[in-house]
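Annex B. Sample input.
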Amino acid sequence: MRDAVIVEAVRSPIGRRKGGLAEVHPVDLSATVLTALLDRAGVDAASVDDVVWGCVGQVGEQAGNIARNAVLAAGWPESVPGTTIERQCGSSQQALHFAAAGVIAGQYDIVVAGGVESMTRIPMGSARRVGLGDPNSEAIRRRYDGIEFNQGRGAEILADRYELSRGWLDEYSLRSHQRAAAAVDEGRFAGEIVPVTLPDGTKLDADEGIRRTTTLEKLAQLEPAFGEDGRITAGNASQISDGAAALLVMSGDRARDLGLTPLARVHTATVVGDDPVAMLAGPIPATARVLERAGLTLDDIGAFEVNEAFASVVGAWLRATGAPEARVNALGGAIALGHPLGGSGARLATTLVHHLRAEGVRYGLQTMCEGGGMANATIFENLAVTV
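Annex B, continued. Sample output.
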């Protein structure tokens, strides 16, 4: 039976909104990680069967099939195609699922999966503001009694449902920054980050969102973002960011033919739908389903990446699953590093497969909530760990 392995995974630094990557066109940012990916692997671009790329805001500079434009900007042969997909925040995790499925089905031998989002240049929600109507039809409004789908409201619902106090949310968020800072100091991201050359010739080679000097006192001073009595603030939510990431996927046989050692195998992948009003609870059933399909238990998983869209998402997931927090987002998450929507799934996967290799951990699980009440979940296996 064919399998799908990841032989290389890279990402850009994650830039703050209006930060170092603000002047970099998202096509060029994508091309930067594509170029580095194949350079590091030593693979000829002409051998790539497809590029499957996630992007949420597919308007303006991110319109027109950014995957294909990135291939051309990278200088790859015109024979290399590309397609752009959108599953909200899980777009590039879904890109990886499609890429792995294509390899296992025999449609691809070598494929690149990844994604990008320049939230500075294409602000969140831009696709809804082009004056062409509301994507929520009358039938949807009738089904949900006119309730507005809102991620902030979903985050508050989870905080209520799982009795997550403002103090817990802020404490978790502080740990995210502390863990990310420690990871930087220990050089844990060095093997995955690709420096980006900026228009002025300087290079950005480090994540910009980590706040080393934040404290619980500072976090407690922030006003609620979604109502006076709310618990969600800018400090316990993910940061608006710019970034891109890419993974090189191929069959195990092709990797052996090329003399490449896989970072990990895509063991099991799934996606679920869930309540679109609460919206952000999907990682809970997604985790249960992917473990069941893999024939594994929570105890088998040595490392988890649960996207920190909001601290309440991770808190709800922890309380529902009973997973040990020490294994979750060990290097920090989107609260500290940032959440460049269409690039985040690939960023999490990149960090996770490098973490598995560095720590000698066999199985890692990644999951993330998505707009509309969906969630992807993926289990990776470090083949270097013997039973």
